[in-house]
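Worked example 3. Consider a protein that binds S-adenosylmethionine.
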Amino acid sequence: MGDALVSRLAPARSVALAALVESERAGAYVREVLDGMPRARKLDARDRGFAMRLALGVTATTGALDELLDAYLARPQKVSARVRTALRIAAFELVYLGTAAEVAVSQGVELVRSQAKSAAGLANAVLRRVADAAAGYLAADGVDADRRPLVSMARRAGLPLWLGEALVRSLGAEGASQLAHAQLMAAPLAVQVNPRVRTTPAIGGDPCGLPGALAGVDGPRLVASGILDAADAVVSDLNAQLVATAATRPGTCLEIGAGRGTKTFMMAAQAARAGYARDHVALDLHERKCTLNRERLELAAMERIETVAGDARDLDGVLAAIDGRASERVLFDTVFVDAPCSGTGTMRRHPEIPWRLSAREALRDLPELQLELLRQASGRVQSDGELIYATCSVLEAENDAVIDAFLAGPEGSRFCVRPVSDAAIFHEEGFQGAAALIRRWESERGLFQSVPAPQAYDGHFCARLVRI
Ligand SMILES: C[S@@+](CC[C@H](N)C(=O)[O-])C[C@H]1O[C@@H](n2cnc3c(N)ncnc32)[C@H](O)[C@@H]1O
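Given these inputs, the predicted complex is written out as structure tokens:
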């Protein structure tokens, strides 16, 4: 390739660099930063797609890229943030995209030069060595033989080693390597349609056995159709839709961790399909999320749902107004805890997770909070009612271990685990096929745990606890 050709910096790379620098500066999600950049909108669709691939990929593998770059930088701590980000982009192309070395190195040098002219020579030397070392780094050459498979798996997925270890402990070697294999691939898109919609616009996708769900829809056609803006559909991973469906029961429901209300919407949609009469309280810590939830529910014409903002660690305090209105401590037929979690089942869609999450958060702080929320929630379940616990994590510490700790405590002694696939709604007409989708991921104990894989949906956990 001629010098003139390789030394012209591709606009997609410089847009990716600007988005990464800004997302790091502002602590914002890189996808949103890039989507909002006027420069990115001027790119044609192919270049915009490439810029996004670089920005998401570098974010998802940041620590692995730094580990490799630092091995060849004489004084890693002296490298400015902008130059380091430019080096990461070139290293990502070399290690994970398989871009021809001469192109990735020369474009990387130009990218670095665009930030600091004086650093171009250093970039050239470092990136050539990274190009030579990439295959050995992924294969974990030089690592002790007994650790090599684990280290290689973590590096190929661009994950921190502690997370690779936690995944193997949680999912076994096969499950962890399935997740790792899919980690840098795009996740498929699914929607749940508002039951008031008679004819769904042409957005691609197939009915997949779950009422209201369309799997494998086409992103640009979905956005162009306007059905999201009209609250005629919500985007939701198919496994999350199965969990929301399992939690949909007749009677009263308290949803803890309702967020912006994707599951609130889906539960209302499935209840309408199953013919269930319901009254629903959707609670979240953040007032702003409650407002967004309420606005979408109004647009969707979904009724008998009240949003409440407050900290569910003090559930009696948050529900005081509702208790006051009823002149008693209100118990619910269903309490659904959609718990704050590490999001490790959804890392393909949220590339910030692996390198922003700490081992302490995922393995200690979040499980403590989850157990506390479950204990509080259990005190609001009617006799014969159900307590449903869900996360979008694949870590045992946040899932089975929380359920076991709960069942071992005094509050848990009033509950027993029942299979998620046997939830009442799966016995309703039209829903039986969905039980089969659940059973593919159900343990002998009846706990649901899906694991991301290429072409497959995300990692979600659900436990169904029935009050005895
Ligand atoms: C997994 S997210 C919920 C996703 C949401 N259910 C949906 O389907 O869009 C967990 C939610 O729990 C909320 N949360 C975190 N700590 C909380 C607390 N102490 N009390 C109540 N909500 C909390 C977070 O604000 C977040 O929206």
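Take a moment to read the result before moving on. The pocket of S-adenosylmethionine is lined by residues 256-263, 284-286, 289, 311-313, 338, 340-341 (CB under 6 Å). The longest helix spans residues 45-70.
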